[in-house]
Amino acid sequence: MLMLMPLALSSKDGFCDEDGRPNFLALLDSIRRTASKMVVFCQRGRVLLPKSLSKLNPFLNHSLFEISPPRGSFHPKTWLLHFGTEEGDELYRLICTSRNVTSSKSWDTMIVLDGERYEEESEDNRQLVDYLSWLSKQDCLRDEPEKEAIVRSFSREIRNVWFSDINPARECYFDYTKPDARNKPLDLEWLDSVRRLLVISPFLTQEQVEALAEHLPDNGGEGILVSSIDALKTLDWSSDALRKYSAFYWDDELTSEPEVIQEEIETPEESEERDNDSMDAEPTQLSGLHAKLYIAEAGDNVAFVTGSANATNAGFRGHNVEFVTILKGKRKNLGIDAILGTDEDAGNFQLRNFLLEFEPPDKPTPVDEEQQRMNMDLESARRALGKGEIVITVQKGEQSRSFDLAVKFNPSEGKAVSLPDGIEGQFWPASLARKTRGVPLTAFLNKEEVTFSGIGPGDISKFVAFELLGKREGVKETRAGFVLGGRFEGEPEGLEEMVVASLLDKPEKFYEYLWFLLLKNYVSVPSIMPGGGFFGTWKSGHGKRFPATPLFEDLLSRCVEDPSLVNDIDGLVQAFKNDDQAKEIIPVEFLRVWKEIKNGLTEAGP
């Protein structure tokens, strides 16, 4: 799923030919362009094992960054995008959602805000600025100055961004939590004077659900709690605070076939969220409640809050890092009835149609203590592995396009890590198949250097896959699969160009990819047709072909216009020349032309 992110952030024009088939070279160049500008933060140890392998993994080596808070988890689900127009406008899009970057088909919430940058600062963005500033100071960016600069620039620029078109809301601002010396919680001023409250959350803790209900008046206050039936069963409904709620659970049978959900461990009490995403099974239809939504009505005024925070201690009290967006408006537009629907509209599509009333049990569902202990031990092993340093040494292999990856583990503070009784595991480079490459975890924990040989350029990844297996008598067998990032030693220079060169196996593909390098965008896509030779033809977005201008002229004009292209193209040329299997792909006529262009531009200077 991570590989889809740079594609989602690129232009869609030109990705397919006239028959609707994806143009692989367009997708390849899109990933190359966008990954270099992309910074993705995630909780260390919470990246799931990939369902399928990709030869484009090296493009993510310097885009994905893992955060390990001192307590709890890094849990936000927020996208911030910066666009520049040819007219010089600075446009921004903020997406605040409850959805993870997985293939899950769960029900989620999302707010999309568009804005422009002006001279005047926006006070409403203060918490967003603080959050971005905190991200820019994370240790995971320490050796990545270019990516650190991207995050810092966002934190500066967002001060002056005004998000517009927030109708039907009248006001929009942000809040976040983080675990530090004081545990910064969510500011709950939006619950002031609330008389009616909707809470939608898949994970719950007794203490936090009661704390929200205490904002409702004892007389005339109404609470509506929507969650999974399993979460609702864990609550003690004899509590006076919980009697203020009418409870409902999401019924997948009313919406679609249920998805196969992988058993995944959770941290105790803090409800560190499980991704309802299977390692091996593809999700089917929309299934499972994953939304986090809070609507507080105070007379005719409403606060509408959504983002990553569950109705748990971890979500509200600063045990986790969370991010939410708060909209304020009128009840008729953003109120509970406007979102859930009313009995009067029972025949129409509305969320009420998917909810079943929950009948509280006499006692909470008892906890399986042995299973909980197993889960805690698995989580402890996961966190211990995540705290250590993984060093990945890359060396040239014996054959062309071949490398060796030596993986070694340095435990945190030099303290040895051992697995609890009944837990075993294996590890392997995340870009490879575990069935053929998995190595018992004992070698890893003993700080032995384990070498994986015969690795191609597309398999050189800084990420290592782990699978922990818990097996104890009387307890259900439990697996936990995840990926951890490591630190490169000896990363091959020009690795991304090597990957591209290994995928361009014909001169025609080289020329077509070269055209993509020259394009500013994908409004029109070139196509090197059989017999087109050095000059080729252009194909418009509508499929109509036109004679192309000579490649020499386009190369020269674009390199003069954008000098950075010289390094991009020359890096690709050198990757071909250094690859015994690919060096014959580039025609001699192009090499002669490129040599003259490069020398001419180098002598001319900036």
Shape assignment: globular
- Low-pLDDT stretches are 256-285, 522-549
Could you tell me the mean pLDDT? 84
Q: Percent range for helical residues? A: 25-40%
Distance between the termini: 40 Å
What structural category do the secondary elements indicate? alpha+beta
Total strands: 25
- Strand adjacency order, main sheet: 7-13-12-11-8-9-10-14
Strand content: 15-25%
Task: Please outline the major beta sheet.
Answer: 8 strands, mixed
Rg, Å, rounded? 27 Å
Continuous helix count: 17
Task: Produce the secondary structure layout.
Elements: H1 4-8, H2 24-35, E1 40-43, E2 64-67, E3 78-84, E4 90-97, E5 110-117, H3 126-136, H4 145-157, E6 161-164, E7 169-177, E8 196-200, H5 206-213, E9 222-227, H6 229-233, E10 245-250, E11 293-298, E12 301-307, H7 313-316, E13 322-330, H8 331-334, H9 336-340, E14 355-357, H10 369-387, E15 389-396, E16 403-410, E17 423-429, H11 434-437, E18 439-440, H12 441-445, E19 450-455, E20 463-472, E21 475-485, E22 487-489, H13 495-503, H14 507-518, E23 525-527, E24 537-539, E25 545-547, H15 551-561, H16 564-577, H17 588-604
Parallel strand pairs: 1-2, 8-9, 9-10, 15-22
Antiparallel strand pairs: 3-4, 4-5, 5-6, 7-13, 8-11, 10-14, 11-12, 12-13, 15-16, 16-19, 17-18, 17-20, 20-21, 23-24, 24-25
Helix pairs in contact: 3-4, 13-16, 15-17
